[in-house]
Amino acid sequence: MRLLALANEGQRELLGNMLASARRAGVAPSLFRIALDGHDREAARFGSDAFHRMTGRKIRWIRAELARRPGDLLWVDNDVVFFRDVVPELLARSEDFVMQDDLNMPCTGFWRIRNRGRTRRFLAHVDGVLTSTGFGTNDQLAFRDVFGGVEHGCSLHLLDCGEYPNGRLYFDEGRTADAKIVHNNYLPTAAAKVERFVAHGLWRPDPGALDGLEIRSLPKLPGD
User: Which phi and psi (to 5°) does residue 34 adopt?
Assistant: First the structure.
């Protein structure tokens, strides 16, 4: 299985923190494929036009990686911290999509994708939704709309919220005891996420985290 992660210039330190935590948890660095999305720091702000376009490039990169060679993928947002090596557990599940539960919908910030024809067709639909809006929405909302609105035949498993908590559950509600990872979402900016990691003792970035890793170029969108 390949682990994909993406950052722009405004998120590079977050990426280093995520990769360092994965290594400490025992996740093999050789599993990671990394993409760096230019220098637009505005893409680090949730909900911005640049952020929406970055999620469009993300979906196109996932599609390209699935088409390029066999094997499943795990997408890991750069604001995740690993406490355990969860790769074997995620690989063992049979569903097409295994995703963090973001409470109101599946989370495309941490999800394992089976490399099958129906999942590739599903992601083509997600890409189509993003394209049809002129990249005016994000990939998570597009996933939700496709999953509930298109005949696709894909199966979905939502991960346990205590073991795979989002930012609200872990940091605001204190559900930390069983956490295998934490996804530091529910904040709009990279700076706010760094501040929260620091406050909870989870900020240990590695400046050399990208050394020796395979760096990819993201697909272009119209207007790039």
Answer: -115, 140
pTM, entire model: 0.95
Looking at residue 212, its pLDDT comes to: 87
28: domain CATH number?
A: 3.90.550.10
Q: What percent of the chain has pLDDT over 90?
A: 80
- 85 is a domain residue: yes
What's the CA gap between 18 and 175, in Å, rounded? 20
**CB atoms < 10 A from the CB of 147, how many?**
17
Contact predicate 71/3, CB 8 Å: no
The neighbour count for residue 81, using CB atoms within 10 Å, is: 23
* CA distances in angstroms from 92 to 5, 74, 96, 159, listed in the order given: 21, 13, 12, 13
Element (H, E) at 21: helix 12-25
Number of domains in the chain: 1
**Tens-place pLDDT, residues 165-192:** 999 999 999 999 999 999 999 998 999 9
Give the SS3 label for residue 50.
helix
Question: Is 51 a member of any domain?
Answer: yes
For residue 223, which phi and psi values (nearest 5 degrees)?
95, -10
